[in-house]
Design brief:
Two copies of one chain form a homodimer.
Chain A: H1 11-18, H2 22-28, H3 37-50, H4 56-63, E1 68-73, H5 79-94, E2 98-103, H6 107-118, E3 124-127, H7 134-140, E4 147-150, E5 160-165, H8 167-179, E6 185-189, H9 195-209, E7 215-220, H10 225-238, E8 243-246, H11 249-261, E9 272-277, E10 290-293, H12 296-311, E11 319-323, E12 325-327
Parallel strand pairs in A: 1-2, 1-3, 3-4, 4-5, 5-11, 6-7, 6-8, 8-9, 9-10
Antiparallel strand pairs in A: 10-12
The structure holds a DNA duplex (30 and 30 nucleotides).
DNA sequence: ATCGTTTGTGTAATCGTTTGCACAGCGATA
DNA sequence: TATCGCTGTGCAAACGATTACACAAACGAT
């Protein structure tokens, strides 16, 4: 009530005020506990009056459950991750779970940070970052089975994971581009070190192989627009490719801009450009990107489904596979 | 060490293993405590062997400091907020503070969520959302002085805030557009209910007034690309404006696309379009937006500066004002 | 040899909840 | 009336750390 009150009132103090014991206070706030409904109502009224709320830290210590979830991501800056995170956070909130966001560019910082979060006894861990090795994750959160978002079957069988498979969708996209007459393909990677990126590349490489083709040129960026732009300029200057598959949508937009602005080439006529992720921006009129898209809603539904099962005590491990589908735009 | 170990070891157990008391274990992990360096080294070695880390929940309960920070935002989906959040989270991590992200579309959910976070005894609260009334914030986090990001001097003098002022920058932009010969202005609002949006509009309205002009048309969106596109179509059909000031950059891009695609009008010749925020995307070649831009780095530096002072025990209130500056693109 | 100071360690209280156990009251059943 | 079961409440022990206090040992100075 009184906003200038500095200290928070405790259950013991409230107990005195309500003329009951602190145990009864606790029961008034626990849904299925043996307590007279008159007592409960009275306690809740007094609690409201004095602004009492049970201390979640103390409760967590007692319960051995913090209702905190650690989310390990590379960067919120990437619109794909931002869209997914927002969906996930909303869903977590519906379960009264609070997200702690760990986002980090540097690798050793990331491990440090994961260790820090693990001291908060998080109930769940979701790892979106392909920069974290599964062994590190399991070691650091050794009391919490992590949920890994991966792109291939995991070697460690004891970890729940969401697997994303774009092989079929990539095939459809390659088929279309080849049937449009393109033959000379390049792959513009998101990063050099990420195994996710290697796998994404493989989906397309395999599809090309079925047409007797292979990537003629390669380049490495960092998933950013600027790197997409810059690497595309270099790439298109040094080799005469007529189709570029990019590691994500943002880089694809950069590459498209580079082709148009620096090389004077238009899509899809002069050159085909393909993204990956299916971010909202890809569908904007100014972009209208052809991209290998993942449905973020079902993706996050899957993550939450695994969390729900873990909450219910069934630690699995659970594994869910999702397929990517093409979004057809005017760039390929 | 052993990744399959289910339960976490406690300081008391480690004490037994190391042949000391649990108090000594605690001291081994506290930087400035009286402990023999030989003992500390031995304890740290044993701790590493058994994978012991002090339990942050228990420590928080004892310390009365959780090292958690609640960030209240509207939506991560907005690239502006995403860029800012990422900067802020990185800086928090350097201070060993962990962010809890509260993001919510619905208003009552938001209050509910803020109440939930407050039970975790967060050490700091940063409110980015213009949908939260300051009184609600102060009431809910009554033991933690919140930091409010605002666009005008606060009526409640007891709250630290970061104030953002774009009056001068908006004036420069209007001057330029008027000197280019435009006279008929529209304002495309981000939301109907937000006081931030009203203030942003006022910066431009005041600047127009100095030229003896006023907004001829208004429309309301929801800060999204789609709403920018749709409202711009309606707006441009019903009135003959030659300049549109938008509530944020994303809507401006939508409006630009609408003008170009549906109305066949080009920027800046046929129509001037201006955004607000200064997100990275505004500078992309395909957008090259003229926008009233806020330097996100100094913005987040300011937030962290206030947090640092609060950490140091000086609860202020502190107030920092930042100015917006134009980014000149090819849309106005 | 004595005193004072410093250093290192243990004991026990504390932080604010939750929950198993005990028990009192009370209505129903035999 | 004695017994049983059920309900509502209090007592006290966790949960896992931190820290004020006490004290013993070590050391230097007199």
């Amino acid at each position: 009530m009184n906003g200038t009150n500095r200290r928070r009132i405790t259950s013991k103090e409230l107990a005195k005020l309500a003329g009951v014991s602190s145990a009864t206070i606790s029961r008034a706030f626990s849904p299925n506990s043996r307590i007279g409904s008159a007592t409960r109502d009275r306690i809740l009224a007094v609690a409201r009056e004095y602004g009492y709320q049970p201390n979640a830290i103390a409760r967590s210590l007692n319960n051995q459950r913090s209702r905190l979830v650690a989310l390990v991501v590379n960067a919120i800056g990437n619109p794909c991750e931002a869209e997914e995170q927002q969906l996930l956070i909303h869903r977590l909130q519906a379960h009264q779970l609070l997200p702690i966001l760990l986002c980090c560019a540097d690798h050793s910082d990331r491990l440090q940070l994961m260790r820090l979060a693990s001291t908060y006894q998080v109930d769940h861990v979701v790892i979106f970052s392909d920069m974290v090795s599964m062994q590190d994750a399991v070691d650091i959160f050794h009391t919490t089975k992590p949920i890994i978002v991966s792109f291939e079957p995991l070697e460690n069988e004891d970890v729940s994971n969401i697997r994303i498979d774009g092989a079929v969708g990539a095939g459809e996209i390659i088929d279309k581009i080849v049937s449009d007459g393109k033959r000379r393909f390049a792959y513009l990677s998101g990063t050099k070190s990420s195994w996710i990126d290697k796998l994404r590349r493989k989906w397309f490489a395999d599809a090309l192989a079925r047409h007797g083709l292979a990537f003629e040129a390669e380049a490495f960026g960092d998933y950013s627009y600027d790197s997409g732009f810059k690497e595309a300029v270099l790439l298109l200057h040094r080799s005469k490719v007529d189709a570029v598959i990019c590691g994500n949508d943002v880089m694809a937009i950069g590459a498209r801009d580079a082709a148009r602005r620096v090389l004077g080439k238009n899509t899809p006529g002069d050159i085909a450009i393909v993204g990956q992720d299916g971010i909202a921006m890809a569908a904007w009129d100014c972009n209208d990107l052809t991209t290998l898209s993942l449905d973020h809603v079902s993706f996050m539904d899957a993550v939450v489904e695994v969390i729900e099962r873990h909450e219910a005590g069934d630690e699995g491990p659970h594994s869910i596979t999702l397929a990517c589908t093409p979004r057809w735009g005017s760039t390929a």
